[in-house]
Amino acid sequence: MTETIWLTTKLAAVTTVLLLLFGTPVAWWLARSKAWWKEVIGAVLSLPLVLPPTVLGFYLLIALAPDSPIGQLIQAVFGTTLPFTFEGLVVGSCIYSLPFVVQPVRNAFEAMGDRPMEVAATLRASPANAFFTVALPLARPGLITGAVLGFAHTVGEFGVVLMIGGNIPGETRVLSIAIYDHVEALEWGQAHLLSGGMIVFAFIVILIMMMADRQMRRRAQ
Amino acid sequence: MTSSSNQNTEFKARFRQTLGTFTLDVDTHLPAKGVTALFGPSGCGKTTFLRCLAGLEKAAEGSLTMGGKIWQDQSTFLPTHKRPIGYIFQEASLFPHLTVRDNLNYGMNRSKETVNEGNVEETANLLGLNKLLDRHPDYLSGGERQRVALGRALLTSPRILLMDEPLSALDQMAKEDIIPYLEELRRTLSIPIVFVSHDIREVERLADHMVLMDEGRITASGPLIEMLSNPALPFAQADQTASILEGSVVSYNQDEQLTEISVEGHPILVPGKIGETGESRRIRIAASDISLSREKPSETTILNVLPAVIQSVEALEAGRFNIFLGLGQENQCKVIARISSLSQKKFAFAPDQTVYLQIKGVSMIEKY
User: Fold this and answer.
1) Which of B80, B111, B140 to mutate to test the interface with A (most CBs of A within 10 A)?
2) Which of B55, B81, B95 sits opposite A116 (nearest CB)?
3) What's the pLDDT tens digit per position in A37-86?
4) Which chain A residues touch B105 with a CB distance below 8 Å?
């Protein structure tokens, strides 16, 4: 059981870190670009919000399969294939949880407006420098919300994992799969323990977010 | 406080930029010294013009040189962060995640100009911010925030200071709080200041030059005092029209509590103690506070009676006349008097006549 919890935590942590690294520039571009087609990109990136996870998992499985062009490319470069591996799960989770990170960060960047970056420019800060010293600190509430949502969402993921990860202990057997397994095997005790743990976890996540939000609001006043 | 530079800092600016139905089309020189006001009704393009100077807006067509250095032409566009400017926005726009001290340091640390030790303390002192240094902007009043913004801009050692309606977001009290600091800057700062305003009282108080704008174009520009008393411009016709005179403080009479200010050799007495001997001060005389007399009035309670020569007489709507007068040896100092058409009928004032101005003492000077 600890193996499952550790694996789930590791998956969620790696996914969250990757999404913050790559999702933040994407969110910045979505918030700042004046290109008319940015909403097309925005809509594509938001698809995981509305798609059934199994649909997403199904297409990922096909796209990453060893005989697909992408699968062959990955095999040629890394000498391995992604389906039914931890790395495959990370790729799936990143796509699945992307909108949950990008959207709050984008909102934070949009709410800030152009002014702080203009002020920074008049104070001799280059755009890159202003991004790190002004835009990111001001978007902190959005970044925290995005990180928490991305992490929690990855922990709860089931459909995508089942499709591209399967159920390999220590490799792809995450919490939600384990709970399903225990129920199938009529091991109610274990299922209770994990599910109860998830309830406590979800409660703590929401509580922390609401308290952080209140803190931010109080500071803003 | 700022590095005094004698380098030429004249702006040569030409911008053409269309935004929807609005077109900014300006081509002008801005003086290298003193305070220049960009004045006009809202929507006339004055803020867009200022933003073009700062590089915050990139005019489709334009050229800009500052002190001989090209900031913009067909192939060049110097980005804002490489321009040695100080910029004050309408709202103070302090960084809310930084303390006052870190806000002040932000631009200074990034500026290439060499800065003296203790500069932050000095600027904070000058702007009355020493007690606020460790506070967050959320806990400052509107006037305090704008003062921090001003200090923050000055600490980058700018070659020119650009201000976009720095007072308009402030209430009257906050305005009174910050105006003395701006006046102090106007007197002590060696760099040119360009500020945008739609409030003529602000302009009268702070500006040396004025650029008048309307619908994206410059309709007139020149020294403020000449512009205000120019019969061809709308200022002279306004209800509240006034003349601004520049004079130097001569002495203060403790017993009568009057300060004597010399304007073109004429003594003018002003209530209260104003400035120190030798300092230059600006006097505002409302056109309706002046009455005219053919003879030198011998018995009058009015303290300030000056001889002047009529330059021109102009009829206004609603039965009133503007009399444009020249003071001083060459009549170079212009004053407007507003009289009724009945008085004009009775006295038939005409150019080149010498008359005596009686200025009602009480309402004649702006607190400086």
Assistant:
1) B80
2) B95
3) 999 999 999 999 899 999 999 999 999 888 888 888 888 888 888 888 89
4) none
ipTM: 0.82
User: Taking the alpha carbons of A50, A54, A57, A61 in that order, is the dihedral positive or negative?
Assistant: negative
pLDDT digits (tens, 9 = 90+) for B143-197: 899 999 999 999 998 989 999 998 887 887 788 778 878 877 777 788 899 999 9
B237 within a domain of the structure (yes/no): no
Q: CATH no. for residue B43?
A: 3.40.50.300
According to DSSP, residue B174 is labeled H
The residue of chain A nearest to residue B111, with distances taken between CA atoms, is A124
Indicate the pTM of the whole model: 0.83
Number of domains chain B contains:
2
Say if B99 falls within a structural domain. Answer: yes
Distance from CA of A144 to the nearest CA of B (A): 16
Q: Alpha carbon of B70 to those of A30, B10, B56, B82: distances in Å?
A: 34, 12, 16, 12
Q: Is residue B4 part of a domain?
A: no
Q: Do B138 and A129 touch (CB under 8 A)?
A: no
Identity of the residue in B79, B82, B110 whose CB atom sits nearest the CB atom of A123: B110
Segments of chain A with pLDDT less than 70: 219-221
Last residue of a domain, one of B227, B250, B268: B227
Q: Which domain holds residue B32?
A: 11-227
**Do residues B16 and B110 both lie within one domain?**
yes
All domains of chain A in start order, with CATH: 2-220 (1.10.3720.10)
> Among B196, B213, B215, which Cα is nearest to B18's?
B215
Q: B186 and B287 in one domain?
A: no
- B159 lies in a domain? yes
